[in-house]
Amino acid sequence: MAEDESLREALLELQFLRDREARTLEETKTLLDCLEAFTGAPSAGDALASIFLSLRQKVGAALSLVVALNDDDALSIVASDDPDLLSLAIAPPFDPFTRARNISDLGVLGKWGDGFDPSRFKGMIATPAADGLALLTFREPPSYFRKDDLSLVQRLSGLAVQALRNSEIAAEKDLLAATIAGSSSGFAISDATDPRQPLIYVNEAFERLSGYGAEEVLGENCRFLSAEPPDAPERKRLRDAVETRSGGQFLLHNRRKSGELFWNELTLSPVYDTMGDVKNLVATQSDVTLRVEAAAERDQVRERMESALAATLDAFLVLDADESVSFANKAVNDFFPAPDIGWRVGSGFAENWSAFLIASEGEADRITRLVRGADISQLSTLRNGQEVNLPSGRRVLIRASRLADGGMVLSATDVSEIKAAQHLLSQRLAAIEAAPDGIAIEDADGKLTYLNSVGLAHLSFSSAQAAQGQSWREKYHNAPRSPENKSFEITLKRREKGAEQTHEIIGSPLENGGSVIVIRDITESLETEVREEKLTRELFRLQRQEAIAQLTAGVAHDFNNLLSAINGSATLIGMSKDLPSDVAPHLDRISRAGAQSAKLVARLLDVGAHDESDGAFELVSVLSDLPSLVQASLPASVTLTISDEARAVVLRGNAGTLSQILINLILNARDALEGTIGAIKLEVEPINCVADETLQVGSITGGREYIKLTVSDDGSGMTMETAASVFNPYFTTKGRLGTGLGLATAALHVRSLGGGIEVESAIGTGTRVALYWPLAKAEVEAPVIGEPGADNLSGKTIIIVDDDPNVSGVVGSYLEALGAEVAACEDPRDAVEAIMDDPAGWSALITDYDMPIMNGGELVAKVRPNAPNLPIFVVTALAKRLSDPRLAADQVSGVFGKPIDLVRLSRALAALSNTR
């Protein structure tokens, strides 16, 4: 029994062992099948898919997941046989990474979050794997996983992780290969285990870079690209790196298959195997020809720039970000000498500046505070820089600007000459501003860019800003365009505030196409020219008048001599006691005509001479003689009427002047009647002027008394233009019958007396000429013509000198009739000799002034030393204009005009002492 029991137990144990061995064999066979499928997969992805397929076939899994723990402790699906679940986040209600589990009822675990719903599954096996991964396998109802399934799932989880990692590595390799193949940089890989270093791979970019195809270079050493000699430093450095299987970066001068040279930037990197040995060398290559050439050009430009800056007169200083000197040209030391440092490269700005200030001791106060403190950061903020007075006496402008790398560029320019030029320019600008003419500058388009203050006033601009961009031509009427690039000079007119201005404009072209415009206001100049022209005409007129005056003076002198003989003879005839009674009226008429002729000659002498406004006369003396003087010149068809009011008044001036003016006016009225029946009226009216009044000729003054003498006719009359011109010299409407001097002379005398003339006339209504003659302040005695023999000259011896014997004969006869003893001489020298022989034998000397051999002044000068007390009387036709100093009052006893008034002369002689 016991043996049977033992046998039974042995058989049971044997059966158990056989079952276990069968299960083990089955499990091993299943695992071998899975391994065979895994290892036979053509790719890492297929290997992972074989694991999921084995789980489905061997354990009946409906779904398999590989999950990973993220950095935020959340789980995400990284692999699955259901592609739609990849990257899905899940939250299982247990930790799948602590231990393996075979869960037969998922419903007892709870929710898995919102992303994944396991309710359709019955059971689950969760097995942790390496690298923070876990394999989750789900089975659908009604069955669940067996216990033996857990072991197989555990074994397959490791293969799944390995397949996943291999898949990731393969993906990275594929990405790397694609990147290398598609890179724009050339890649070449050599076999570092072969001493020849043959190429085993080149990408397309290498083919484009070198010009060689892959079939031409694989298995060859890449030294065939080099264009540099074997001993070139860069090529030797590359060779050493290859021999030592090390990396590095190199710049090589290579040659393409076409022979074209290019610059190749090569980066060499070693690739190690699992044993740490260099298996391959990878060379990355780029064509940097443009960069190298640009760098070479930049270096060349920099070299030229540094050479130029070294030679320039301006100082240039370049500082690094730490304010150390990167570059300083020679002018920096010239401007800011820093002993022992000299602004050398690498030295600091502060130490150089300190050395400069120490070397400038005693003069440093001339340097501004900003630069004295070396605050170059503040200096860089000044847009226009900082001007500094250097100890050397120069003035420099310092500018600073920051660079992108934090460095700084400083420049210093000597502006001493510029400042002097600016000062000179400001002076010139001040001179332009002070110029009396307007000065403007216009650009090539004719727009103003500058206008001085006078120009602003000429063109009526309110300010310089208002004038900017405007055209000066728009300020004038019809201003022409100036010729391009040519000088011009034009005269234009413009009207401003109702007044017309005339401007002379001169333009001078500039090199830039603009012009300098000078605007000169010539309005007053033109007016002055008109006045000067008028004055010149007046001067010519006066010169002609003076010539006429001289001519008339000569004629008057000769005529006076004749009148002296005529009047003297009339006087002598009148002294005859047996004169027939019928002769007396004729003799009286001759005397009055002679006296009037004498006045007329005196009027001729007044032409061009100074007026005589100090005299006085009775108006009655002029009016009484006027009818007899003009009646003979009036035709029977013309009547003359003279009013006799206000006759008993005394007027200023000379009676002959008024008489001649009235005669001229009456004869002009006669001519206006032109032989027709008509009337001429002379009306006399006293006027007391109330206020000042300007007349056509002269003016009258308020508060003063005048006699208004109006000559009117009922002739043809005159136009307004003719009436306005009748007082102009030489203006006449009578043609050759008139001189144009009558009314002009009348105007001259009336104006000099302080009176005036007014003319009223119109065609068909006749003419009225009103003479305003001022009254004298006091009445004077009218001239008296004495009776012959009224003065007794008995006992007086008188010598008469005149080159005209007729004159001396008449005067001598008259004086002899009054009892004097007379001796006449034609030659003044005879008189000098007679007086020198007996100075005391003569009572008086009467001499003509105008004589050819010796004039009266010379005769007086010769006689006076030997006869200092001898009375001397001078007779001349130029009495009014004679200014000989030898005829002063202390030298002569009197001066008589021609024709001589014998009565006045006899009275003067009678008044002398009878002593000789």
Fold and architecture overview:
- Strands 23-25-28-30-29-27-26 form a seven-stranded mixed beta sheet.
- It is 39% helix and 23% strand.
- The chain has six domains: 14-174, 2-Layer Sandwich (Beta-Lactamase); 183-293, Beta-Lactamase, CATH 3.30.450; 312-419, 2-Layer Sandwich (Beta-Lactamase), CATH 3.30.450.20; 435-521, PAS domain (Beta-Lactamase, 2-Layer Sandwich), CATH 3.30.450.20; 616-774, Heat Shock Protein 90 (2-Layer Sandwich); 797-910, 3-Layer(aba) Sandwich (Rossmann fold), CATH 3.40.50.
- It is rod-shaped, with a radius of gyration of 72 Å.
- By secondary structure, it is of the alpha+beta class.
- The longest helix is centred in the middle third of the chain and has 52 residues, at 523-574.
Question: What composes the largest sheet?
Answer: 7 strands, mixed
Return the structural class.
Answer: alpha+beta
Question: Quick check: average pLDDT?
Answer: 78
Shape: rod-shaped
Low-confidence stretches: 778-789
Quaternary arrangement of the chains shown?
A: single chain
Intertermini distance:
234 Å
CATH homologous superfamily (4th level) name of the largest domain: GAF domain
Task: Using the CA coordinates, give the radius of gyration.
Answer: 72 Å
CATH topology of the largest domain: Beta-Lactamase
**Helical element count?**
24
* Total individual domains: 6
CATH architecture of the largest domain: 2-Layer Sandwich
| Beta-strand segment tally | 35
What is the class of the largest domain in the CATH system?
Alpha Beta
Q: Give the neighbour order of strands across the main sheet.
A: 23-25-28-30-29-27-26
* Percentage of residues assigned to helices: 25-40%
**Strand fraction:** 15-25%
